[in-house]
User: Fold these one by one.
Assistant:
Number 1:
Amino acid sequence: MTSWVRAFASKETRDAVFRAGTRTESSRLARGEDARGGGDGEEDVETASGLRKVLTRMDLTMLGVGGIVGAGVFVLTGAVAHDHAGPAVVFSYALAALTSAVTGLAYAEFAVAMPVAGSAYNYMYATFGEYAAFLTGCNLALELTIASAAIARGWTSYATTAFGIHPTNVRATIFENFIEIDMIAGLVVFGMTVLLVIGAKETAKFNAVVTYASLLVVAVVVVAGSTEIHPSNWTPFAPNGMRGIISGASVVVFAFVGFDTVATCAEEVADPSADLPFGILGSLGICATLYCIMCVVITGMIPYAEIDVHAPFAIAFSHYGMKWIASTVSIGAVAAITTSLLLSMMGQPRIFMVMARDGLLPDWFSKVSEKYGTPANASVFSGVVTGVLAVLLDIDILAQLVSIGTLSIFCGVNLGLIVSRCAPQRASLSERAPSYRRAAALLVSCLAFGIDYRARARLSWFSGVSLAGVVASTASFLTLPMDHAPKTFRTPFVPFLPAFGVLLTCVLIAGLGVLAWIRYVVYTAACTGAYLGFAVRRADAELASGGVDPGRPYAPCRPETDDDDGVVEVELSAFPTTESDAARDRVAEPAEIEPADAHRLLPTTAESSSSHPARP
């Protein structure tokens, strides 16, 4: 600790620690060779990083649907209706869907601007710098790993139920409500890991087949269940009022995180500018509609207090003597949970891979298999960690650790979109300060409103003042130039729509329990300590070598001119975020490369003036 204090006493060290690094958007595009290209129907194109651009629009949509449907429809619906919202669970899902849709628009714009692996980690890096990106990557890793382990244990429950076996009969309890050995879950995780190592296209094909089967089962449930709906079961409709609806939405928002996997796979998409927005928003729309219909059916069939929280639909049909439909539901649930597990595990290694590229994890994680074109090392590591958790820990312990990290990432992406639109390009910290101050004011106002509204379950004078602060801080962004956005896809009504997304996520964060907040604070503190230890060591090495670590090479930024002689001039410099960085970059010498090679590293000149979000 003392060495950290001494290190930060030096301004040069602070600058080196907190600058955003040299991984600018252009260098990220360079990793995915011709990242904005594709669209020519050619499959199996390999990027400069070794990943293969094989995913189509339909692949992305089915990946999103497969990742979303399993966890929400067959796992969370009964628990949220029983414990939180009652029949108003349909409003909980609608609120969570609205939050996810607004966030999905921000994801789509970022994914088009930076079609490389990493999703929210990259977006936070580009707007708030390396530290925020590190925290985001840590939360993504925790979210996806724990979610995968919980889903794997849920797979065991539904699979054994389909064969008339109680789940406890295949598990060995070591410590009550904490450690339960589940070898089936471990075997399922092992199978998914093998599939992920083999290739993204093979994974997408498997996912499509299983997802279609899941959707067929959902259709059977809706048609058969609608014949047994009794409107009297919808009374009382919201037994816990708005507080119950918000608490339910805070839980079920976890069910929508599958669309993040679509953005995580951006570097493997054949035509990212057209296919990524379609895949993200299309999968969200399909799943939100299915969720709401299924909620209406289950709460109409069974009084909310009598809904089984483990296998709600299968037990409901058994109650009405529809044994064959109950068995069909169990099989369909296994299929849906399989795709949800697969997609959750697909996102983990790509996050590790991108963090390793940026030097935040060992380089071993960034290795791509020459044979399969997948991040094999990171996939194996993710599979081992997930498998151990799935085998050992009870699902309730796992589920309590997820939602707040997901919501904090959603909040950060919405804030980042506003900042990326108005912060000047090639900006130092002082130049970006106006947008950061406005973002901080917006975040504080939204959290104040969410906490007060959650505590009172009604509007008060304080929540009114907080809401006025939300409006004022959002409107203040209009005093800054907002001229940085990709031409192919833009989120509408910026800054107001992303600000609405920040408000929704803050309301849902406030709806989580105290334990979730404690977990988040402790985990964030641990990650911060790890980052500072790493960053100080790196800063010391850079200062000792003259200010810049030669192991972190400069990356070319966007083209500045296109001379008549056909030579594109590119400034080779890190993207400055401190005054010392800016001063260093002003003396950087320009380099020249031929136009035939320039397009392999950079966006087109026509796009360069507007297609990049602001960079740290």
Number 2:
Amino acid sequence: MDNEEPYISAVGANLTPNADQLKLLRNVALGEVAADLIIENVRVLSLATEEILHRKVAIANGFIAAIAPVDHPFCAVEHFDGADCFLAPGFIDTHIHIEYSLLTPGEFARCVLPRGTTCVLADPNCVGNVLGVRGMEWAGKTTTPLKILQQISHRIPRAPGLELGGATLAEAEQLEFLDSAEAVGVGESVPFGFDDRAARFQAAALSMGKRCTGHSARVADELLWAYAATGVSDDHNAVHIDEVLDRLRLGQMVTVMSGSMNDNLPLTFAEPELLKGAYRNFSFCADDKHVGDLVKSGHIDHHVRSAIANGVPVLEAYRMASYNPACFYRLDHVIGQIAPARRADLLLIPELEKVEPAAVWVDGIQVAHREQGVSEALFQNEDVVPEWLYNTMHLSPSFGETMLRVQAPTAMSGEVAVVRAMEMYDGYFKRAFEVELPVGEGNVLADAEIDVAKISIVDRHHATETASSGFVRGFNLKKGALAATTNCENQNLVILGTNDADMALAGETLATFGGGYVAVAEGKVLAYLKLPLAGIMSDESWEHVLQKSDEVNIAAASLGCEMEAPFMILAFVGLAGVPDLGLTERGLIDAASQQFVPVVVCCRCPQHIHDLSK
């Protein structure tokens, strides 16, 4: 027992140097032992002092041993000439759902490490909703160099009274996850409701010195104050300067989101002069970002470029990507800065404004480089995919058009009904409105001429007939249907369409694939992306997923959909934690009250006619 290392659950305890490593680092710094690697001739970003220093960096056993003047004599096994480039700490994404990249953790690592992301704080909510504890455990591990720390999902399912959901995470299991060195805190919660279990979970996190992260849904005043009073200390939904300042004044970290649905950077930093005293309270996250957007626009490197382009001082932008989040999440003793005894997660950057790493090191080993304008990982993804990640698609045997109906009370063919509907704006935000729609054989129908499509959420976990349908505007679908098995949060089947027949075909097609994305029209499958791992991730390389994702997006565009990320936004239409309305497999939900509301307001029979403007 004396030789066993004690179990410590403090954040980052799994990343700190042990006693032997500390002695080694000291000896290397003293020049008594050769370093493994010296990175020479570099301009080090000293983010704690906001200086750029000509230095050399000595690395031993994966840690930084010393940062010394360029003429200081160090012995080393290997020397690397930095060619007078800048040396920055590795980037940290402070809130992401890796599953929404459509990739496994290993393929995600191959995609983002060459761009400079060396650590992610990931909420495994998606796979947790499908496979529970073992899915969450799997999502936090990879044999690739990427460091994955976890934000433990606030609740699975999020609202048991409002959804059937998939897997269930017990309170004791949540607390066990939280009490680990790999857990940085509580995953995002929403400001609508705070029960005893939520209070216990957040109190436990705070007592462990861990953060409670937020998804404020852009609420203001009393709702925001009450939200902050529950211990939530960051928010990735603030966009406009007034929202940003409100949160900063409440002592919250503003985590600027740029994903597939939202790029908040230009608006957040539209007036940088108003934020000068608060730059150290900003960090960056992607939240939900498809592989295509990671490849084409970037990951945290995109945040840094955009922040600089919008007037944020260069060193402040780099701080937001590394040192700020490390300090906030109490990881600065192991990552986030170029300093002794920290992990040697480093980026060699020729031009600070371009943010294109020429080389990336993790734990002192070069894992990526950029040559002739192409960034490339220097490692393979050797992660093993367990068999239990497959075959999670369980639709009811009776699935079909009947399950997609919206019944109009007492209505007959040829009449119309008034329904509550959702209009998409700013990515996944929804504005409630009422609209007249045609009724056929008692079934309320979509109306493509006024851009109102039907949307259905269908249980795909338990093979029940639990399903509900509503209506949404903003996709501009002219014909056909789109479907995905990535519905947020519980990862059910979500189908959008102009007619029930194509919608049913879309759902049936995904059932044969074990999950994914599909576009259909007039009884034909136009394109698809298979996501057989928990119905939400591909088992292929990121290059293959990128190609198939492009194909299905092009097919969606051919149906009239003008959104840049139609399948991502489709997955979030039903999210009941974002105002005004949400939709689960059990029904339409008012986000503010977290109560069910009827889809059909009334029919338009003569005895029920009323003025829609009132």
